[in-house]
Design brief:
This protein is about 65% helix and about 10% strand. With about 325 residues, it is mainly alpha-helical. It has a 3-stranded mixed beta sheet with strand order 1-2-3, covered by helices on one side. Helix 4 runs antiparallel to helix 5.
Length: about 325
């Protein structure tokens, strides 16, 4: 809950800043009448709308589990990110349309010197906010917050590019530079909108996060206990800031319920130490079989049927399988 509230506070700050920067960019546009500045201002409208949507999605995601939502409300973040990606693509298309239209009917530019300083101010503020939001989104496993941070960073990069373009227009007098930069911006924005939609759909469809799975497996291999004889059927699902892990853990068959519970507690605590308390588990315990003995590292096991031969390192290739492992 503390993590969700922190995400909510940061998103509120991001949304408030987006409204201020939106106003500043339109001031710069009315000062310069630059098409590239207009494209940047139009993207800021998307920033404001996306920020409000992201704020609401994080509010929903912060709600505790209930009878109707046993896994919480975290997937609201994926829906928010998908909508934000759609808005980004829409902004890119509008920029392309305006750029092509202005190419055939050029409009005069003026007061570029003052406009460029307004733009640079918005770029610096955007970059600082974007880096903060993206870092906290990564730390707290929040796609909505990461998407907002990425969006702000993209906005700052494009604003810097526009400022450079305006500088070139001032220096050379070639107005076509302004239109060219606007077109390139439109294409870049559309591409980044596609990436955000792709990631959000992956979350909605519970697509396996291979990088996250590898992190979990690496941590388990690093501090693996001898009584964790085998691991299989590992699944990791993300629900916003919440991470849900399902797996089958093989323990000695002669462990009583309390001993098996202690083994599972050690297993889950190891992962929580790495990824935080926003991880929930469903761990099914299996008793070891005679074919488990050659890969079992437990010493002085009185029930052993065959000697230890080789330690089986867990990897993506073997822990995702729904079968217990044995040497061939």
């Amino acid at each position: 809950m503390q993590t969700s509230k922190q995400n909510l506070r940061i998103q509120f700050f991001v949304t408030s800043l987006s409204i201020i920067l939106f106003a500043l960019k339109f001031v710069a546009y009315f000062m310069t009448h630059s098409l590239s500045v207009l494209s940047d201002a139009l993207e800021s409208i998307v920033n404001v709308l996306a920020g409000i949507i992201g704020l609401y999605s994080l509010y929903v995601a912060s709600k505790p589990k209930d009878k109707d939502h046993p896994y919480g409300h975290g997937k609201a973040e994926f829906i928010s990110a998908a909508f934000e990606g759609s808005l980004i693509i829409t902004a890119g298309c509008i920029i392309l349309y305006e750029s092509i239209d202005t190419f055939f009917e050029p409009k005069p530019l003026h007061d570029l010197d003052n406009g460029i300083w307004v733009l640079l101010t918005t770029a610096v503020l955007n970059m600082a906010a974007g880096l903060t939001a993206k870092a906290m989104g990564k730390k707290n496993k929040s796609l909505a917050l990461s998407s907002s941070g990425q969006h702000l960073l993209i906005d700052s990069y494009t604003t810097y590019a526009i400022a450079i373009g305006i500088g070139l227009v001032i220096y050379t007098g070639y107005k076509w530079i302004d239109i060219t930069i606007a077109i390139l911006m439109g294409l870049w924005i559309i591409y980044n909108g596609y990436k955000i939609i792709r990631e959000s759909l992956a979350g909605i469809m519970d697509e396996a996060d291979m990088a996250l799975l590898e992190e979990v497996i690496a941590e388990l291999n690093l501090s693996r206990a001898a009584q964790w004889i085998d691991l299989h059927n590992l699944r990791v699902i993300k629900y916003g800031a919440l991470m849900h892990i399902d797996c089958h853990l093989t323990v000695p068959w002669y462990f009583n319920v309390n001993e098996a519970h202690v083994a599972v507690d050690g297993f889950t605590q190891l992962i929580k130490n790495k990824f935080g308390d926003s991880v929930e588990f469903f761990v099914h315990t299996d008793g070891c079989m005679p074919f488990s003995c050659p890969i079992c590292t437990m010493e002085h096991c009185e029930k052993r049927k065959s000697p230890f031969q080789e330690k089986l390192n867990w990897s993506l290739e073997n822990v995702l399988s729904d079968l217990k492992h044995q040497l061939k």
